[in-house]
Amino acid sequence: MLRAALSLLALPLAGAAEQPTQKPESLGEPLPGLELFRWQWHEVEAPYLVALWILVASLAKIVFHLSRKVTSLVPESCLLILLGLVLGGIVLAVAKKAEYQLEPGTFFLFLLPPIVLDSGYFMPSRLFFDNLGAILTYAVVGTLWNAFTTGAALWGLQQAGLVAPRVQAGLLDFLLFGSLISAVDPVAVLAVFEEVHVNETLFIIVFGESLLNDAVTVVLYKVCNSFVEMGSANVQATDYLKGVASLFVVSLGGAAVGLVFAFLLALTTRFTKRVRIIEPLLVFLLAYAAYLTAEMASLSAILAVTMCGLGCKKYVEANISHKSRTTVKYTMKTLASCAETVIFMLLGISAVDSSKWAWDSGLVLGTLIFILFFRALGVVLQTWVLNQFRLVPLDKIDQVVMSYGGLRGAVAFALVILLDRTKVPAKDYFVATTIVVVFFTVIVQGLTIKPLVKWLKVKRSEHHKPTLNQELHEHTFDHILAAVEDVVGHHGYHYWRDRWEQFDKKYLSQLLMRRSAYRIRDQIWDVYYRLNIRDAISFVDQGGHVLSSTGLTLPSMPSRNSMAETSVTNLLRESGSGACLDLQVIDTVRSGRDREDAVMHHLLCGGLYKPRRRYKASCSRHFISEDAQERQDKEVFQQNMKRRLESFKSTKHNICFTKSKPRPRKTGRRKKDGVANAEATNGKPRDLGFQDTAAVILTVESEEEEEDSDSSETEKEDDEGIIFVARATSEVLQEGKVSGSLEVCPSPRIIPPSPTCAEKELPWKSGQGDLAVYVSSETTKIVPVDMQTGWNQSMSSLESLASPPCNQAPTLTCLPPHPRGAEEPQAPLYPPSDPHPSFAFPPSLAKAGRSHSESSADLPQQQELQPLMGHKDHTHLSPGTNSHWCIQFNRGSRL
Amino acid sequence: MGSRSSHAAVIPDVDSIRRETGFSQASLVRLHHRFQALDRNKKGYLSRMDLQQIGALAVNPLGDRIIESFFPNGSQRVDFPGFVRVLAHFRPVEDEDTDQDPKKPEPLNSRRNKLHYAFQLYDLDRDGKISRHEMLQVLRLMVGVQVTEEQLENIADRTVQEADEDGDGAVSFLEFTKSLEKMDVEQKMSIRILK
């Protein structure tokens, strides 16, 4: 692999060498005509080389990860540095001079920003602010301490004669060196700690420190550098004061720049709803602008980008579409990983260039020892102070890891390269020392920190899925603590956080989030939504297996038999185009009842179609590690499902398997509910319930319409159209529950396969005008790929409906030309029994349906319905499951 | 500050309160100050009104319930020991708390008691269970966004189901504890200042 990469590299190089000699000749000769072949290396050289380097790095990464053993033992950063060393050696041998250095300009302007943006944007903000005090202490005090003690100690070493006299450096030079070598490097820390998985608190402290200490490093470096350039004799007392002041200017200024850009970014994304495609671009552009602006004003650029990412995330994520969200996430991760890879590789390559450095053992050894020693000492001292104020003290093991995790990296290297040799005569020695320090920390410490963490039994991070209870109770705790602080009269952290949240809710979010997003912005809701999706997925997956066993034998649904034969998984695999699926449906027998079911499915599908697309976004939003690529959905989901199943076994079982237990409970609950909530369905709401609910729904819809009337079709789809669907579904559920003679418990899991096909078709068929948009653009792509999701939804819709949908496909096919007309007659069928008709109907439809039912259709059709109804009752068995499903849709709809 | 120790003498039954709550002398003095500040008419006890006048509590979604928790069994007033007893739930757990001899009653700031405090905020009718209805009420307070009633109900259903293990459609304290067993309650329900 390596060889291949090298030959790739060598090719353009060789080409470059030959090119100039050939060109003049060809020019001199009279050209017969059009040149068949022209070699234009120089015109593409720069970008070509960049692309090649990245390619080499990526290939190297692939190679590293071929063997899990290697990567589990050796951090990737080590491997990359070593690879860089090898490559650098080869380039040196071939070209006789060192090329491709890690240029400070490139590093600071291009390589560093993506990494910092990535870490800022995905920083767990709650954790970060919970530990802000500790982070700031380590970042500011710790870095100052490290810089001064290391610098002073080195100077002492020199005074003691342990450093060779050829290293010409005074106290200021050593302080300058100390300032650049003292800062813990975010890139290195991230690279190593991401693989170590220490507990979150420890990680956020080390990592946060490495990000925030940039301001201190920059200031120290600049101040020392200018002092050195001025000459120590010329430094006035005011200069020291200025130095201190500049610390505040640089750090606060950087943060302010970041926040301003975060604000701009959030505000901009609020208005992108018609140009979704540029949303990711905006995120990157504005974040980068923040970086460059801060850099331009010589403020702390790292701080600026960190704050920008940290500040904008909440609002941006709420504003942009889910596709943009995924794009942002992946692009950010890709860029960051790319930059990181290149940095480490170039670090290795740069080290080969011996012309740049000069060795002095005393200096190198002294620096290494001092760095480790003072880091440890500083950590212990600061932790001792911090623990006086911390609720959860950092124990000794934490301190060891923190001391040992103080990795130095490319920032130090870039800074040392930036030194001016005329002003700092010992630059070469410093460069050598920095290289050694960086290599030592990244390779030796990086290699050993994992075993160390294991050996010390450091508390690891444990990932558990959030549960609704946890989320809810966590919020409760927050509120309780805030209240208790109020009562105690101590305005502490909780008080201010509470204040901030209220301020954010009242003003900031309203200002920065588009209205549709603001409405549904809630964490409990979020968790609920995600859980539902996960459940749905696992459920569907489960359903595939269940189907063959129980589905066939269900006595209550004779019409299902035909569909049951096709197993869910088959269907999933098949995942041809929607059209193909539909064809199958057409062949199936139709009956009056089936037709009705089909209509219901149309409605549901029409409504549910949207949420399906949505769901992916929010599902992947929080799982960075997960590969949310559509194709991989299936595997990921299956895994998820398994885990989820285990954790939720009890609930699941209650819902799906035990018939007797949950059912009575549920009905009981239902009743209670009915009492509590006038609107809720009570015992036998069929006749009253329908009218009421329908009316409610209608009003909501119209509201929505008014609100977003200006919005484009797609926007409607995205943000509002869905709403009725949600309600509709929930209503269905309720209906189901109410009606519930809950005998057939496994039915929810039974997935009539053919109906899905029908449903696939349905969305656009049931189609109101706006749905048509989707049909054209997305059906072909999304439906097949998204099969799984689609499947879920169809499943759920089926469940809630519990009617065998497949057979009615013919009706569906009729629908497209006159969707409304087709549906109208059907809708009335349901009203008597339940509020279904309101579901998926766009307002107009719903209205039509209602009026119809009101006026005429009720009685005659009800009779027709009867069989179906009984049928339905069976399927509606478990309200619990149903409710899950419907919720999912709700959410989607609201998005 | 120097007057702290002298102030301690003002508090009636300092020692028994300290023993019960585990608060340090300094904390008690501080709380007593606060108590007196809240007690506007120098009645020697606090009424609901006294607590309701704390501005920030009014906007706290759980504010009313938390105020209510200071007045157990429907009493109209809370004296200083009662006041401190409630706050003692939020004392951070310290090392010496954990290895106490089993004969002593469980300290107020134990994990169990912290959880129980939260639990009784949900359990309005004090039947030892969070019913679906009670859960719904809490959710209505907590979910600030415009979620429809049905959706809220669905969330409530889901939440109860998630924690409900014995299938009675309500969350008992045991189930409540279990649903939070992975959470660092000791940390999340403590305020550093209340040592």
Polypeptide structure, described:
- The complex is a heterodimer of chains A (895) and B (195).
- Chain A has 895 residues and is mainly α.
- Among the domains of chain A are: 381 residues, Na+/H+ antiporter like fold (Up-down Bundle); 71 residues, no CATH class.
- Chain A contains 38 helices and no strands.
- The longest helix of chain A is centred in the N-terminal third of the chain and has 34 residues.
- Chain A is globular.
- The N terminus and C terminus of chain A are likely disordered.
- By secondary structure, chain B is mainly alpha-helical.
- Chain B folds into 2 domains: 78 residues, Recoverin, domain 1, CATH 1.10.238.10; 83 residues, Recoverin, domain 1 (Orthogonal Bundle).
- Chain B contains 13 helices and 4 strands.
- In chain B, strands 1-2 form a two-stranded antiparallel ribbon.
- The radius of gyration of chain B is 19 Å and the shape is globular.
- The interface between A and B is large, with 77 and 66 residues.
CATH architectural name of the domain at 76-456 in chain A: Up-down Bundle
Counting DSSP E segments of at least 2 residues, the number of strands of chain A comes to 0
Proportion of helical residues of chain B: 40-55%
The CATH superfamily name of the largest domain in chain B is EF-hand
Tell me, what is the CATH class of the domain at 76-456 in chain A?
Mainly Alpha
The gross shape of chain A turns out to be globular
Which blocks of ≥5 consecutive residues of chain A have pLDDT under 50? 1-26, 545-590, 609-631, 649-787, 798-895
CA radius of gyration of chain A: 33 Å
Rg of chain B, Cα atoms, Å: 19 Å
What ranges of chain B have pLDDT less than 50 throughout 5 or more consecutive residues? 1-6
Strand content of chain B: 5-15%
Euclidean distance between termini CA atoms of chain B: 17 Å
Question: How many domain modules of chain B?
Answer: 2
DSSP summary: helix tally of chain A: 38
